Amino acid sequence: MGKKKRTQAFVLKPWCWYCEREFEDEKVLLQHQKSKHFKCQLCPRKLNTAGGLMVHSQQVHKCEPEPLTNTLPGRDGYDIEIFGMEGVPTNALAEWKARKEQEAGAAALAAASLAKRPRHAYTVIPEADLMFALEQHKALMAARRNREAAGGAVPPFPPGVAPPFPPGAIRPPLPGMPPPTLGVPPYGAPPFQPPFPPPGGAYPPPPANGYPPAPAPAAAPAPLPAAAPAAPITAEVLPPAGGVFWPDNDATPAEKRALEPKYRYTSPEPEAGEAAAGQKRKAAADFL
């Protein structure tokens, strides 16, 4: 058994009668009406219905209420009491429902037409169309055979214009380029000379055996001259600024003074108490 097709039921969403705007939930519709249509223009107070806004303006502000804001033309009065979807006129509700059903039906038909596979019409082709297509095919094949017989795959040239080179021949080289070679030149053949002459104005004579001459050996470099012996460097001794010389070169004045008995250091000898203090103390077990 095949699967049953699910039919999508049409559901009418909550909508605002004052501005014809749809909402997903009726709670959102009530908040919309309070903030957009039932808000006092003289204070920040928001009412639930149009009648409550009119009573608020007359009792609090002692003035006639202003027309409702953010509404369609002809729907800014206080004669109809609407709270959410309650109180909407019957004719307006029926008109809105018919319009939404028509839009939903058109959308469903469009989706169904897109989902259906395109149908191919298998009709009989007229004989005149078949003969016309056959004549076109014969003309195309005859033109192809004539082109192949004339020169293979070479495209035809206009009458009176010769091809640049016959089919199968070697293409000549471009100006200033060496001719194409199929291999190594035979032994003894002169080498190829460049198309442009050298700066001197003449080509050098070709070698006798077909090979360029070997380069001449380079001359040995000249020996470097022998370096002259360096002169010994002597330090120039300048006289002292005060005019006094220290005659002894082995010891300084500080070392000389340290050797005198007056400045010589002698370590003191330890006394008896200090010598006893340096000995190891006996343990308490030695006295038992």
UniProtKB/TrEMBL annotation:
One of its GO terms (molecular function) is zinc ion binding. Residues 38-66 form the C2H2-type domain. SMART domains: ZnF_C2H2. Residues 253-263 have a biased composition (Basic and acidic residues). Its main location: nucleus. The keyword DNA-binding does not apply. Keywords: Metal-binding, Nucleus, Zinc, Zinc-finger. Signal peptide: none annotated. It is found in: Nucleus. Coiled coil: none annotated. It comes from the Eukaryota. GO terms for cellular component: nucleus. This is C2H2-type domain-containing protein. It comes from Vanrija humicola. The lineage of its organism: Eukaryota, Fungi, Dikarya, Basidiomycota, Agaricomycotina.
